[in-house]
Structure formats: structure tokens, C-alpha cells
From TrEMBL:
Source organism, top-level taxon: Bacteria
Protein name: GTP cyclohydrolase-2
Cofactors, names only: Zn(2+)
EC identifiers of the protein: 3.5.4.25
Pfam families: GTP_cyclohydro2
Coiled-coil residue spans: none
Lineage: Bacteria, Bacillati, Actinomycetota, Actinomycetes, Kitasatosporales
Residues binding GTP: 66-70, 87, 110-112, 132, 167, 172
């Protein structure tokens, strides 16, 4: 009898296990860009803690939105290996200038989803001559392992039906559409390249289909 109760208890626990994203907290967040609301979420599927920075009254349609993949080196350390930190700042400025909008900061997306240490290993290989795609593959890792289901879940929770998506990456648009979020417009987020990231950006354009037309006007920087 005791054994049966134990089995039933396990089945009950399995039935009550939560999935999807859960809104946990909504706190004011004053920043150098403006006064945001930081809405925190728990991703029950992956265990990640996520946050959406919301500015103004966002409405439901054509909301100016950025899905920003976590990048410690670019966002916090100012790395010039990529343009991530500048893109994050530009997106925050853009939603403030618009008067409303959302920046969803996606943790677990470090290095296009391979993690911080793997990203650093890939950067070391790039310093030896591989491009960003070749480096991931040389490590036996996927070129892009990011999943945008949690971002769509957050937008659904915020009652957003359609977005003007600040991104140069067509895969972000495709992912949101697959998860039921209409992309009314894709808004370019173009950052002037520098000597340290021009090769990386050209690889993103040529091998990952990122829309980076401003690179056409840039000569060899290195």
C-alpha cells in the first residue's frame, strides 16, 4: 500500500509541474535612458530568470520591441568584438524616443545560445583566423542554439499582438511569427562597425543572413 501511495504521489507531482513563463515581479527601474518598468519572469521550462523592460503605455499592436540576446562581454564590458552593447543602448534610446516600447532581455542566449565559456573559446578560435560560424562548428556546437519561445510568451503575457521588431536578424522575425506574434515591421538596428568587429559583422551578413546594408559603404578597416 505504501509503495502505491509513493507512485501516486510522483504522478501527482508530475501533473502539477509548471511550464511556460510566469510573471513574478513588476518594479520601477530608473535608468540613464528613462524610467522603465522591469517586469521579471521565470521560465519554468528552462529555469532561466528573464526580464522585460517596458517604457510607457505599450498598447497591443505595432509595439516597438527589441529581443536582446544576453551578451556579457558586449553589454557589460563594452567588447568591440560584437555590436551587442551598442545595439542594447540604441534600442533603449529608441523606445524612449518613441514614447513607448519593450526591450526583452533574453538570458540563456549568451554566444547565440552556447554559453559564456563556449563563446570565449569560439572567440579564441576567431583570433586564430576562423569566422564566428566556423568557430562554433569547430567546437562541435550549433551555429545558433537560441530559442525565442520564452520571448513570445512574455509578449503574450503583456497582451502584445504585433510588434515593430528592432532587429537585423530574419530568424527572430520567423520565430515570433511561429509563436503567434505578428511582426508588422522589421526595424533595422544598424551600428557603425569598427576595426575589431567588421569581419564578424560581414560573417553575420554573408553566412547568417543578417540585413546589414550599411556595410556596403565601409572599406577595409583592418
Amino acid at each position: 500500500m505504501t509503495e502505491k501511495i509513493g507512485v501516486l504521489g510522483k504522478k501527482s507531482a508530475q501533473r502539477t509541474q509548471r511550464s511556460g513563463v510566469e510573471r513574478v515581479v513588476n518594479a520601477p527601474l530608473p535608468t540613464v535612458y528613462g524610467e522603465f518598468r522591469a517586469i521579471g519572469y521565470l521560465d519554468h521550462d528552462r529555469g532561466d530568470e528573464q526580464v522585460a523592460l517596458v517604457y510607457g503605455e505599450i498598447g497591443t499592436d505595432r509595439v516597438l520591441t527589441r529581443l536582446h540576446s544576453e551578451c556579457l562581454t558586449g553589454d557589460a564590458f563594452g567588447s568591440q568584438h560584437c555590436e551587442c552593447g551598442d545595439q542594447l543602448a540604441a534600442a533603449l534610446r529608441a523606445v524612449v524616443a518613441e514614447g513607448s516600447g519593450i526591450v526583452v532581455y533574453l538570458r540563456g542566449h549568451e554566444g547565440r545560445g552556447i554559453g559564456l565559456l563556449a563563446k570565449l573559446r569560439a572567440m579564441a578560435l576567431q583570433a586564430e583566423g576562423l569566422d564566428t560560424v566556423e568557430a562554433n562548428l569547430a567546437l562541435g556546437l550549433p551555429v545558433d542554439a537560441r530559442d525565442y519561445g520564452v520571448a513570445a510568451g512574455i509578449l503574450h503575457d503583456l497582451d502584445v499582438r504585433s510588434v515593430r521588431l528592432m532587429s537585423n536578424n530574419p530568424r527572430k522575425r520567423e520565430a515570433l511569427v511561429q509563436h503567434g506574434i505578428e511582426v508588422a515591421e522589421q526595424v533595422p538596428l544598424l551600428i557603425p562597425p569598427c576595426e575589431n568587429n567588421i569581419t564578424y559583422l560581414r560573417t553575420k551578413r554573408e553566412r547568417l543572413d543578417h540585413h546589414l546594408p550599411h556595410l556596403d559603404a565601409v572599406g577595409q578597416l583592418s
